[in-house]
Amino acid sequence: MATPKKTAAKESGQEKAGSPAEFSKEQELKALRDMLLIRRFEEKAGQLYGMGAIGGFCHLYIGQEAVVVGMQMALKPGDEVITGYRDHGHMLACDMEAKGVMAELTGRRGGYSRGKGGSMHMFSKEKHFYGGHGIVGAQVSLGTGLAFANRYRGNDNVSVTYFGDGAANQGQVYESFNMAELWKLPVIYVIENNRYAMGTAVSRASAQQDFSKRGVSFNIPGKQVDGMDVRAVKAAADEATAWCRGGNGPIILEMQTYRYRGHSMSDPAKYRTREEVEKVRHDQDPIEQVRNRLLATGVSEQDLKAIDAEVREIVNEAADFAQHDPEPDPSELYTDVYR
Amino acid sequence: MPIQVLMPALSPTMEKGNLAKWLKKEGETIKSGDVIAEIETDKATMEVEATDEGTLGKILIPEGTADVAVNTPIATILADGESAADLAEAPAAPAPQPKAADAPAEEAKAEAPQPAAKTPAAPVSEALPDPEIPAGTEMVTQTIREALRDAMAEEMRRDGDVFIMGEEVAEYQGAYKVTQGLLQEFGARRVIDTPITEHGFAGVGVGAAMAGLKPIVEFMTWNFAMQAIDQIINSAAKTLYMSGGQMGCSIVFRGPNGAAARVAAQHSQDYAAWYSQIPGLKVIAPYSAADYKGLLKAAIRDPNPVVFLENEMLYGHTGEVPKLPDFVIPIGKARIARAGKDVTIVSWAMGMSYALKAADELAKEGIEAEVIDLRTIRPMDTETIINSVKKTGRAVTVEEGWQQSGVGSEVAARIMEHAFDYLDAPVARVSGKDVPMPYAANLEKLALPSVAEVVAAAKAVSYR
Known about the structure:
By secondary structure, chain A is of the alpha/beta class. Chain A is 43% helix and 11% strand. Chain A is globular. A seven-stranded mixed sheet of chain B has the order 11-10-12-13-15-14-20, with helices on both faces.
């Protein structure tokens, strides 16, 4: 399996996801479109940040698109999604509107949080997206709580709880693992291992670099997944959702992925070489993989360009809206503190 | 000489217990380590082991006796060679020595029935009826522990989304027995023992609340909640705002707060000021049994995250609780616990025990103090404070917490802002001393506020 980096996984004994199931043409096209939307959205967000339209922290998801898109393809309505601060991709994958997300980035009243949350704090009850959390690791306990609510209500929803290789070293992650397995909660812990916790490489921060094994002492099964191949992600997600819906408790999916941009917009990324980034982009880019497969099966370049054009239009509209929508009314300062 | 077996103190805050059962009969041989009796404390039934060898000479307190004070002789043990005839030589039962450890507990007894005072003046504290309780309502006498349990049980019966989680809340029946019986009534689905994992289960609770459930998260003490404070503040308190009103969190965090007795610095801290600073949280710290019940019910129904600060020293105290099918006290309303015209004393929770006793003392000297029980720290009932100060012109705050950035400081600031022209003296603050809580009994007592300090402060602001 192509992984961005050779890890100890080969010897881990932990189960690896099997060869990715082939996608139908429709699935390939959908994956391409959804991943492209995220990439173009993030490129635009980066641009707006550079123009000063977006303030504060802005963590781009470029490079990791296959993870959320593949996961989402396996979910059903009602399944919850929760993640940390690198959340734009998750929201778009959850079918939240690009306009609302972008307008939140610019701090406008049409944003998902009416301009009061910003890049790291957005929610959509309607789309079952539970944030958007700025404290590294906090979403892991919260996502476990979403799964707790599912079990309490006896429904068959699954909580998909995303966090990074950095958050995987937080204590509350393991407190949550313990309770999730103890109570057999339906939660998929998706560890997005993009190889750097801000500027610290996994090898410099993690004694156990095989994140699929992080649940071993709690008897939580784990898998390493090629997070750059949307088909592999979807296949692993299918297995994981079935596992959770079957009442077997939690499961861990380590998504081996890569972020092309810095940790945030203000990160010069001196901790890795340009060559390293270029190699991943060239060899493993999740969008190029799908494009090449589609071209090989006879889809025309023109058809793919049409998809790109459709996506660009959505993003441009969102950017336009986000820059022209008014800021929140000053009276909003005191609303939503209590209900 | 025969050895006396004394009623043991089986917890830091135990003042008395019931002698449930004698497991040895008079005349039976006893070896060190034998279980001789069972004692029921307000928290649990405990076995009493003999530490001396010999024969059980005489049982002084028969089984079934309730409320036996700690250190009361309950039996005598005859050593080898001694006989029942030697019993006469046993020293007369000494008056139970209040253990040094009980010192703060003594202070807490303001509500306990006082022996008829010889001085006629002092009106009994708690004289004022609570406006929330309709006149003529039948009252039942309950411990605060029972009032809390009933509040939770009633709300759990009313709403299937309410559940309780925490350490030892289910099978153990509560570390302080507050959740007694809940597991039996509601089952393990809704009464959930957690691992010792405050940060994690607080987050799980908040997540469940975001999904629409109404968790009651019990911390064995608020001291342990420091492990979870990120979830309380960053996740529970702020999410409604950060989501533009979409996603809030109806959750109650509750447990004992403040100083207990002789448990030293890491287990004796008042967090009222900490949490009261956070917009998005409501913070409740009741004193009376009725308030405990009515406010906990309100907290469980409130759609916002509520920090409910209890006091371990008060759990066993009894008070009158209205016998109403649905007794809910509005959050954010202070109560005038005692009316007066000369000086306003503002307090809450355990501080009320000093405040009320001090008011009794002051009355003997002709100073009529008005005692306000804040009950809710956030949102604070500024109006009740200000109206009182406008009348009295003088104010004293009383809290067990520290002074710097304390709740008393906030009260003083509000009085200055809203009633400066009415003040005849600067506001005085009586508080816990600016030290970590010491272990030694005498130092612990010194570290806490005292009735004398409240009396002195009230006199100082009255220039008397």
